[in-house]
């Protein structure tokens, strides 16, 4: 791993101007991802996971006010003029969006869509870009790519379309791949194939991956780091093994407990009471306290807990302290 | 053009060939274009050849459409007037299409104050009855063929702007537009490559319908004496001139009227068929049905 992170975010806040007043979607988030590494951003809808990535790369809605520092390959993005930022993003960052049925343009052939980025940013001729598109479609496992290149998106299945989207994202050999819930709209076996495909491509190309998901199961096998977000803040962050073995925030524990367990047979699914808070109306103190099964401390309802280390690289934002086997924390 | 784009248009053409209405409409249009180009040459006699001995003669072998009150051959005048009607249709709809699509695209893509400004202006234009607005514009610019075309173009601009904007509003929210933004495509490129082709289908239909309406509007303006100036022949003007002789010389109105009717019908038939064929998704459904049937 190189020393310089591919994407480094410090103190990122995003405030959306809405009709009902400002909504604080992201409230001071720090994370970074290095080449060849996968960071999983986990959280429920509205937790700020997607918004933090979109804002960092300059794709936040126009009404958003974004502050904080974002470095892409060592270049500060936040101060850059829109045009340069657009070029940096197009050249170095690839995006895979959630729903492959809508993320492809229905009236262009998949070949044209895959080659578009290569034409735009690598200055390739049409012919060269077309050859590159065949190569990419082949790389993402589309059978007889040279023949399928002139097909339209509706002639592909959901899983195949998502492969096309991944090929588009990889067209410029990006240093960073952002996957925004890329498997949510797919059936389970296809999900596994896509997860495996991205992991495999990452090994071969050394790309950094930010995987945005609400499904802990998807990331368990492939991510290196995980950051759990709630109410616009990171509540727990650390190496995936450490977080899964010792979930230290009540929310992380609840998320892990809420995963369906086939071994439990027909037992009821465990859920988290209540609904995630609206960014328009966040509770004071720790955003999770109204739903928290622990509420360990009187400060929970008034004070935002600081992010404190649990073990090497593993941080948590809660006043509550587990009895840990190592006993390193009170 | 890339090979794939050629393939789409070829598939669309082959689908059109299987639609009898589209074939009929296209043949009529083809005929009209031939007549429009070669009308003066095809006409049996000169359009302004006055022959007072042969005034108001009913259709006969020497004058298949009869003669008018000045003894001019109606067939010749109908044939020559074809060019005027087609010209007005194409030029005025061309003006409306270019202006309307540009305004609608900008309004729908950028939203905000620009959208409000442009669309409220369109609403103002839209609030006038079509003909009244056209008459007002002609009154300002002075009567004549060119001003009639400009007036009709202006009158039909809001329709194109609205159709474009409503399409753009839904297309710009699609993830593939966001994806194009994410790969760093410029606004212009996104509008041209991703947004506009996805709103093309309703625009094509609107174009064919508007061609029909523009020809009707020209006829109406000429009927009111505000379009083509006599003695040049125009279908609408011929209707106007024949109006005084409805009871004794039906052929003065019926033949130019039929020409207007056929032209409008042909544009509508072709427009409807194009709509069914140009959308690649619908094309596949059609193909699937044919293959299954």
TrEMBL record, chain A:
<dbReference type="InterPro" id="IPR003439">
    <property type="entry name" value="ABC_transporter-like_ATP-bd"/>
</dbReference>
<keyword id="KW-0813">Transport</keyword>
<dbReference type="InterPro" id="IPR027417">
    <property type="entry name" value="P-loop_NTPase"/>
</dbReference>
<comment type="similarity">
    <text>Belongs to the ABC transporter superfamily.</text>
</comment>
<dbReference type="InterPro" id="IPR050388">
    <property type="entry name" value="ABC_Ni/Peptide_Import"/>
</dbReference>
<dbReference type="GO" id="GO:0016887">
    <property type="term" value="F:ATP hydrolysis activity"/>
</dbReference>
<keyword id="KW-1003">Cell membrane</keyword>
<dbReference type="GO" id="GO:0015833">
    <property type="term" value="P:peptide transport"/>
</dbReference>
<dbReference type="Pfam" id="PF00005">
    <property type="entry name" value="ABC_tran"/>
</dbReference>
<keyword id="KW-0547">Nucleotide-binding</keyword>
<protein>
    <submittedName>
        <fullName>Peptide/nickel transport system ATP-binding protein</fullName>
    </submittedName>
</protein>
<dbReference type="InterPro" id="IPR003593">
    <property type="entry name" value="AAA+_ATPase"/>
</dbReference>
<dbReference type="Pfam" id="PF08352">
    <property type="entry name" value="oligo_HPY"/>
</dbReference>
<dbReference type="InterPro" id="IPR017871">
    <property type="entry name" value="ABC_transporter-like_CS"/>
</dbReference>
<dbReference type="GO" id="GO:0005886">
    <property type="term" value="C:plasma membrane"/>
</dbReference>
<feature type="domain" description="ABC transporter">
    <location>
        <begin position="7"/>
        <end position="256"/>
    </location>
</feature>
<keyword id="KW-0472">Membrane</keyword>
<dbReference type="InterPro" id="IPR013563">
    <property type="entry name" value="Oligopep_ABC_C"/>
</dbReference>
<keyword id="KW-0067">ATP-binding</keyword>
<dbReference type="GO" id="GO:0005524">
    <property type="term" value="F:ATP binding"/>
</dbReference>
Automatic annotation (TrEMBL), chain B:
<feature type="domain" description="ABC transmembrane type-1">
    <location>
        <begin position="82"/>
        <end position="271"/>
    </location>
</feature>
<dbReference type="Pfam" id="PF12911">
    <property type="entry name" value="OppC_N"/>
</dbReference>
<dbReference type="Pfam" id="PF00528">
    <property type="entry name" value="BPD_transp_1"/>
</dbReference>
<feature type="transmembrane region" description="Helical">
    <location>
        <begin position="199"/>
        <end position="229"/>
    </location>
</feature>
<keyword id="KW-1003">Cell membrane</keyword>
<dbReference type="InterPro" id="IPR025966">
    <property type="entry name" value="OppC_N"/>
</dbReference>
<dbReference type="GO" id="GO:0005886">
    <property type="term" value="C:plasma membrane"/>
</dbReference>
<feature type="transmembrane region" description="Helical">
    <location>
        <begin position="21"/>
        <end position="43"/>
    </location>
</feature>
<feature type="transmembrane region" description="Helical">
    <location>
        <begin position="117"/>
        <end position="139"/>
    </location>
</feature>
<keyword id="KW-0472">Membrane</keyword>
<dbReference type="InterPro" id="IPR000515">
    <property type="entry name" value="MetI-like"/>
</dbReference>
<dbReference type="InterPro" id="IPR050366">
    <property type="entry name" value="BP-dependent_transpt_permease"/>
</dbReference>
<keyword id="KW-0813">Transport</keyword>
<keyword id="KW-1133">Transmembrane helix</keyword>
<dbReference type="InterPro" id="IPR035906">
    <property type="entry name" value="MetI-like_sf"/>
</dbReference>
<dbReference type="GO" id="GO:0055085">
    <property type="term" value="P:transmembrane transport"/>
</dbReference>
<feature type="transmembrane region" description="Helical">
    <location>
        <begin position="249"/>
        <end position="271"/>
    </location>
</feature>
<protein>
    <submittedName>
        <fullName>Peptide/nickel transport system permease protein</fullName>
    </submittedName>
</protein>
<feature type="transmembrane region" description="Helical">
    <location>
        <begin position="84"/>
        <end position="110"/>
    </location>
</feature>
<keyword id="KW-0812">Transmembrane</keyword>
<comment type="similarity">
    <text>Belongs to the binding-protein-dependent transport system permease family.</text>
</comment>
């Amino acid at each position: 791993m190189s020393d310089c992170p591919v994407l480094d975010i410090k103190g990122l806040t995003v405030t959306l101007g809405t009709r009902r007043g400002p909504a604080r979607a992201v409230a001071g988030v720090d994370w970074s991802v290095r080449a060849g590494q996968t960071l999983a951003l986990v959280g429920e809808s509205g937790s700020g996971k997607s918004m933090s990535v979109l804002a960092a790369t300059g794709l936040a809605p126009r009404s958003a006010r974004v502050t904080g520092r974002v470095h892409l390959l060592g270049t500060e993005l936040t101060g850059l003029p829109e045009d340069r930022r657009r070029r940096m993003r197009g050249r170095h960052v690839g995006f895979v969006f959630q729903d492959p049925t809508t993320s492809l343009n229905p009236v262009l052939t998949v070949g044209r869509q895959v080659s578009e980025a290569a034409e735009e940013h690598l200055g390739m001729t049409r012919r060269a870009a077309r050859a590159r598109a065949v190569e990419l479609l082949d790389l993402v496992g589309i059978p007889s790519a040279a023949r399928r290149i002139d097909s339209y998106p509706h002639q592909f299945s959901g899983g195949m379309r998502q492969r096309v989207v991944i090929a588009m994202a990889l067209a410029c050999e990006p240093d960073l791949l952002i996957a925004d819930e890329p498997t949510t709209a797919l059936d389970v076996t296809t999900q596994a194939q896509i997860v495996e495909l991205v992991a495999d491509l990452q090994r071969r190309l050394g790309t950094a991956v930010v995987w945005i998901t609400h499904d802990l199961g998807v990331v368990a096998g492939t991510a290196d780091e995980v950051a759990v977000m709630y109410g616009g803040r990171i509540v727990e962050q650390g190496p995936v093994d450490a977080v899964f073995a010792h979930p230290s925030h009540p929310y992380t524990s609840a998320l892990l407990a809420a995963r369906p367990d086939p071994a439990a047979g027909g037992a009821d699914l465990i859920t988290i009471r209540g609904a995630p808070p609206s960014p328009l109306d966040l509770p004071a103190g720790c955003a999770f306290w109204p739903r928290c099964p622990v509420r360990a401390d009187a400060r929970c309802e008034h004070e935002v807990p600081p992010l404190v280390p649990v073990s090497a690289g593993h941080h948590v934002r809660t006043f509550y302290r587990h009895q840990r086997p190592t006993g390193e924390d009170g | 053009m890339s090979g794939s784009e050629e393939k789409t248009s070829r598939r669309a053409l082959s689908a059109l060939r299987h639609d009898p209405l589209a074939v009929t409409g296209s043949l009529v249009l083809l005929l009209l274009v031939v007549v429009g180009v070669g009308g003066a040459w095809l006409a049996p006699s000169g359009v302004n050849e006055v022959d007072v001995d042969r005034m108001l003669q009913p259709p006969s072998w020497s004058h298949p459409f009869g003669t008018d009150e000045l003894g001019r051959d109606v067939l010749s005048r109908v044939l020559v007037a074809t060019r005027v009607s087609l010209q007005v249709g194409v030029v005025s709809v061309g003006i409306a299409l270019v202006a309307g699509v540009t305004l609608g695209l900008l309004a729908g893509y950028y939203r905000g104050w620009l959208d409000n400004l442009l669309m409220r202006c369109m609403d103002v234009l839209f609030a006038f009855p079509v003909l009244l607005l056209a008459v007002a514009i002609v009154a300002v610019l002075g009567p004549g063929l060119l001003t009639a075309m400009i007036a009709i173009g202006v009158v039909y601009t809001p329709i194109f702007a609205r159709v474009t904007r409503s399409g753009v509003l839904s297309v710009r929210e699609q993830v593939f537009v966001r994806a194009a933004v994410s790969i760093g495509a410029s606004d212009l490129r996104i509008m041209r490559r991703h947004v506009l082709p996805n709103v093309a289908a309703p625009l094509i239909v609107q174009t064919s319908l508007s061609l029909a309406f523009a020809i009707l509007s020209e006829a109406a303006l000429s009927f009111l004496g505000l379009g083509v100036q006599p003695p040049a022949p125009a279908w609408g003007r011929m209707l106007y001139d024949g109006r005084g002789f409805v009871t004794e010389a039906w052929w003065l109105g019926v033949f130019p009227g039929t020409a207007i009717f056929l032209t409008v019908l042909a544009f509508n038939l072709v427009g409807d068929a194009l709509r069914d064929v140009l959308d690649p998704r619908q094309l596949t459904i059609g193909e699937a049905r044919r293959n299954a049937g």
